[in-house]
TrEMBL record, chains A, B:
Ranges for region Disordered: 1-22
Protein origin, superkingdom: Bacteria
Chain ranges of the HTH marR-type domain: 30-81
Similarity comment: Belongs to the ROK (NagC/XylR) family.
Keywords, sorted A to Z: Kinase, Transferase
Extent of the signal sequence: none
InterPro entries, alphabetized: ATPase_NBD (IPR043129), HTH_MarR-typ (IPR000835), ROK (IPR000600), WH-like_DNA-bd_sf (IPR036388), WH_DNA-bd_sf (IPR036390)
The protein's name: NBD/HSP70 family sugar kinase
GO MF annotation: an example: kinase activity
Organism: Streptomyces rishiriensis
């Protein structure tokens, strides 16, 4: 069977549910949840008019969502933005929560997000994971997960699932890290190492960063290219509100797009890849600096101080990004480009040469390049929110597990 | 509103239909049509088991499809591949048909395809359209369309729609040719010039070529990059069985991916674009030949005769294609690459350098590069079949118009 290049996990309101009476009910439960989540507090009548069902049908659905603890009634005394009097509905701040985790090259982080999208607990451990074997790293991560889950439980939340962001390629099984060169991990089945009691999703940090931008960014279009960097450079392609994952799950490897085809050799086997010009270590090398732990902080600090070598290195990195992005924009025609992760912190010195290269090479109006406000928080928040979105997309499934 | 980057037109069985009882009936009619189209002749019981509905529900749907002339009953005397005795159902060879048309740089072509996928009428006019204004070209095309429709009507077919392939960028309104540099057309509204009596869809030839490959190719995966060339080089990105169109409808511009960023200037405003190394005219120039009308025939003939200049020029074009495709594969991770259009006829001389460049630059197992068997027929067949697919995807809509 052909694995779909497109998002396989449910990404719209219950899109993958079967086309039966039962499936219709589940899809309609999802519509109610999404309407209240996006625009609540709302009265039953307002929900009905938003989603095009009768008031009676909506009442039945709402009753079920209140019974299973996903919606709550604010009562007639707090009509909020509701037009006519009536009991306003809101997404519950108790009940299911999404647990997000991140395995970074230099840190571990975990957080719990409720259905309203608020972070309710978090834990971080700084220190390099480079060259450590997976078992002790995952054991430490598991400790942080248990601490965050316990904190969340004290606030009446239970974990609906765990999503883990990793700096590497993840297979379409959403649990195997196929290759994480900067951790020196290969073919690591995180599903076998992590606690089995929560539904688990593992994904590339760039993908979770792109989803965070889609869900939490300001005025993010539904079609964009999210470019992020830690040591490598990755991109998330968001198409019509979903991630484009690739047949093997490896789409978005912007770092290995050839920029100068006869340039220096790259770990991928190619030559002159973008990563050789715009990856953090390449920029440090070009600026004559030693790679340490806080690479972005070092570069940003020196650039802000006017260090000419660092500024030149970042300018050249911006030019290389502009060349690689010219190819990507010609292929994909997205509405915009968002710089996230480490690139967000370096944007003031990358953007001028990047934008001039893009406008020199592409016809028509310049494409919007914006800078993520989530920065390095993106992947962790995207992971936690992916669990929350899955609950909103199929509330009936989580209600069965409640 | 954000235009979706992904295929907006219905591309799966009735995917875009509303989620009501009526919508469910329409989606189930589509499922019956697709099952019989893909695997027919089939009995009602076989259809029911294929699509997971009861025999009684399927009978009601089948009766409606027979009444509106989309299915026909072969009778119990021809059980075909049906397991148990019963009247076998087949897609009708009369009724609605798809009219495909192509405006090429050097020709015009029109054909009619029935719901079974057979070409039932066709008309072609050779001669250059380069530099001609749109009105007389479209007038000639309209003459060919009327002739093909008349021929098809004599066989009991009526036109369910007209789809036109053009060598240029088409807006998401699916009727405006924004830019066709090799015709020298700009902002031409074909909807205003073509006869208004059929539903009209205009699309880029590379897109229709990619869809033809998806629908008619042998063992084509659901996720692939279809690369074709006439004078320009275009690509169709097929993702999970649908075209990725881009925000403005301009995705797939592989010809303007930078290959050597300091190379020769291009019409697009960029430098060193793939088209400057692997477009037909670039290859002719590199081989020291004059561009004439049958450019591919000239190159293929000389290459087959062993002309060293032509062979070298094609080898270098293959290398440039390999560099640009390395970037595309890293970004998109498709299952394979299909060379179509003019590239199919030149494949014997392009493929060796193209494949060696790809395997030199990309890690892991070599990606399958295959050659389209449809060749230059692809866009025309893709256009006609897109109309047929729309009928299969929502048979109720066409039945209302019958």
């Amino acid at each position: 069977m052909t694995a779909p290049l497109h998002e396989a996990r449910p990404s719209g309101p219950g899109r993958a549910l079967p086309d039966t009476q039962q499936g219709m009910r589940r899809r309609n439960l999802a519509r109610v949840m999404h309407a209240v989540s996006a625009e609540g507090p709302l009265s039953r009548a307002a929900v009905a008019s938003r989603i095009g069902l009768t008031r009676a049908a909506v009442s039945t659905l709402v009753d079920e969502l209140i019974r299973t603890g996903l919606l709550e009634e604010l009562g007639p005394e707090r009509p909020g933005r509701v037009g006519r009097p009536g009991s306003a509905l809101a997404v519950s701040g108790r009940g299911p929560s999404g647990i997000g985790a991140e395995i970074g090259v230099d840190h571990l982080a975990v957080c719990a997000v409720d259905l309203r999208g608020e972070v309710r607990a978090r834990a971080v451990r700084h220190g390099t994971n480079r060259g450590r074997s997976p078992e002790p790293v995952v054991e430490e991560l598991t400790g942080l997960v248990r601490r965050v889950v316990a904190d969340a439980e004290r606030e009446g939340l239970w974990p609906a699932g765990l999503a883990v962001a990793v700096p590497g390629l993840v297979a379409r099984d959403a649990r195997t890290v196929v290759r994480a060169p900067n951790l020196d991990w290969q073919d690591v089945d995180l599903g076998a190492l992590l606690p089995g009691e929560f539904p688990l999703t593992v994904d590339n940090e760039a993908n979770f960063g792109g989803l965070a931008e889609l869900w939490l960014g300001a005025d993010t279009p539904g079609d964009f290219l999210h470019v992020s960097a830690e040591i490598g450079i990755g991109a998330a392609l968001v198409v019509n509100g979903s991630l484009l994952r690739g047949t093997r799950g490896f789409a978005g490897e912007l770092g290995h797009v050839p920029v100068h085809p006869d340039g220096p050799g790259c770990v991928c086997g190619g030559r002159g890849c973008l990563e050789q010009y715009a990856g953090e270590e390449a920029v440090l090398r070009a600026a004559g600096l030693e790679p340490g732990e806080d690479r972005v902080g070092l570069l940003a600090g020196r650039a802000a101080d006017g260090d000419p070598d660092v500024r030149r290195a970042l300018r050249e990195a911006g030019t290389a990004l502009g060349i690689a992005l010219t190819g990507a924009l010609n292929l994909l025609d997205p509405e915009g480009v968002v710089l996230g992760g480490a690139l967000a912190g370096l944007a003031p010195w990358l953007l001028p040469s990047l934008e001039s290269e893009l406008s020199r090479r592409t016809a028509g109006p310049a494409r919007a390049v914006s800078v993520s406000r989530l920065g390095p928080e993106g992947p962790l928040l995207g992971a936690a929110h992916s669990v929350v979105r899955a609950v909103l997309d199929d509330p009936a499934a989580v209600a069965e597990r409640a």
